[in-house]
Amino acid sequence: MAFTTICMSVVFMLVTLGSSSRDEYAFSVDTLPDIVVSVQQYVRSGCVFILRPDMMDGRDLVKLMRLKRSVNSRGVSTAVIPTRMIDQTFNCNRNRPLLVSFFTNRTIQQTLEEVSRSADLSEAKWLQFMDSEQLDEYLNGTYIPLDCHFIVARPTESGTVIFTEVYHIRRNQRLQKLNLGEWHHERGPSWTNISFYTRRSDLQGATLNAAVISDGAICRITEFRNNKPVQVGGFFGVLWNALRYQLNFTSEFMKPPDGGYGSRGKNGWSGMIGMLVRKEAEVAVGAYVMTQLLLDHVHFVSPMGATKVAVFVRRPGPSFGTTWDTYMAPFSNKLWMAVLCAILGLSFGLTVTLSIGCRIGIEKNDRTTHLSLYDSFIYIFGSVCQQGHGWTWSWPCRLVFLSASLAAVVLLAAYSATFISFLTVRHSSLPFTTFEGILQDGTFKLGILERSVELSFFDQTATETVMQNVYNKLILPALEDAPPDTLAGLQRVCDQPKYGFVVDSTRAYSVLNNLTCDIVALPEAFIPATGTFVVAKHSPYRRLINFNLEEMRRHGELGRMFVHAMPSKISGTSSTTLIKVRFGEVVPVFAVLSASLVLASVLLATELCMHRNMPRRGLQQRYLHRQRCFSSSGFNRSRNPNRVTFSINV
Q1: Burial level of 554, CB count in 10 A (0-12/13-18/19+)?
Q2: pTM of model > 0.85
Q3: In CATH, what number does 5-191 get?
């Protein structure tokens, strides 16, 4: 039977030596263990299985067992198995096992040919001992994939063993041969310093069949010729063209008849996935999310990055109007309490400082310098409100006012900035944020691409009741009218107010510039996933593509391609039109202003009434109090009662 998936973690090494018709080996049995262990260490295999023919004499069997014990003594786990078990799965403690055979008879040759047709030889690493003239003839009917590590060891007259690496770029093409190294009984092994995938970086113009569809900036067909795609663009298109140039191969682009990504139905797989499953194409150039269902039928290349399958709805309009709480919202309750405590503390400090100053003689000890706590509060509150005063204080009192003024400047700047943001930033209120909310709302329809991988999250692999209800109640009724591509589905979100679209977020963001409205992904209605493109199962080019993708990622080329390919409009941003503050949003401001004017007018009228009813003596005292204020402020009044002049003392 064919190699299974578990066998992907198994390393096979086949050592075939001499011929079964010979009595003596072409290689010394004493040197074979050193050669085998050297190759085993080079290919980093975990254990060795020695392959023996079904029919062999006792002498050969004794030599096999002797070789097994010799390799075991060098710290390598070794076992002997018959040739008929070559297509079975063998487990190794660390990675993959190592198969070893000493004979090049017709039975082993036919077994290799059959295994190469029905299984993937790249699941094994091979070492083949043979004469130089046997190489092309012996491997004539065996297909050795590009990613298969197949080493041929051939002796020379000087006793040196030459290691040659062989592989096919494509089936039925010429066998490629590369000099890998040599082994000498005195110097030991010497290997090339060129890495495995670098040695295979030239595909010599081989043609690879690639399935492709147009879907926004992710991947799009840019040129047709005779109704066949010949050029592709977008992120994955540019990435594929870069790989094509770097690895020196050509592409035969193919578009699936249904134009979809692919999903599994009653008649099998559709779309590009169906082409891979049927071996019509080797690569599907497009954005796919990794699912267990797909892993059973195709292989994913190196992940491009994290993504999510999300529900996109039309962004609701901003909510206008400002509540009274908005004016208190810039500061928390604790901060407001701290500001009030600071004002009270500074007021108390001013009163105490002024009183102490009068006692020690730095303040005038008269009625003008005796302030109550209430008076100090008024002065400090006025300073916090950026108001000045006409008193001349000592330096300790001035420091109190300076502290109040600096604190007021900082608080006012912070409050103003936050309050302005409350007036200008528009907050959209989503009707729901989760899958449960969509079900409870009951008025929305959910669309999804009919032939897409995302459909499997709901109809086939969904294990949660919520997902099943979403599919049965919201997706299934609208599935017959499913949009043909991502752009059409998201544009339907703009056209229909009660419509949501389920799609990979990366593909959604790739068409943002083509939409007539702003869309938003529900923050909690999504399925996390990993995005990349896919290749056919057991593709010989998968590991080579992965190696080059990691090199491009390490050099920053993947990020640069993604930035250049994706639209400049960032998800979650609204239009660039100017924000206008409406009258309804500042009604509380005018209300406070009007109330302040009314209150000030009432207080003024009250003071006028009190002033008129105040005794004459009280007026004289207030007059003298003002004179002292002027003299303490640096003003001198002329002694002429008929002429009032003021001069500033310098």
Answers
A1: exposed
A2: no
A3: 3.40.50.2300
